Amino acid sequence: MTRRRSRAAAVLGVAVSLSMLSCSAMRKGPAADDPPDVQKTVALAQRSISSANHQKALELLHGAYKEHPENAPLRSAYIRAVEQTRKEADAVFATQRYQAAGALYAALLKGDFHTAGFAGELSFGMDYLKGRIRTCARILTKNGLVKYREGKLDAAIAVWEKVLAFDPGNAEVKNALGTAKAQLKNLKKLQ
Description:
Shape: elongated
Distance between the termini: 100 Å
Oligomer: single chain
Number of helices: 8
Helix content: over 70%
Radius of gyration: 24 Å
């Protein structure tokens, strides 16, 4: 009986080890037996993230994932890229670089990962992204108003244009920008 238990424990140990190896291989990226286009896409996406081009990485991975939804390493790479982009956005947000943070949150929001079938596996949701974009826009809008009230129309316009780059539907900022541009134009006519 003891021999059977030892043997069963050994077999179970080997099975667990193989399972762990399989999981770690999925975390590292594409396997050698993956289609070449998947390997190339994951490598390009990793380089894009390394060079801070998160939008490109997400687009590449989404396109590949649409073609190969059954590919577990690709799925893992896609999830990692989404999470890494969110983590980078949060880090930038924490340093009060709201335009850069807003751009990263917008890249995630524009990304189609939420249609890829793994949104429930992420540490955040669409509401989180929308809330962060609103926060970035609100803070920058106030900064623009300060510049505007100081008579620094060019500076206010520059700030508000940054907001529209990541929050193009922001009606408040569009109105403020239109007003500031009209005033700047009138001032230039008077000079």
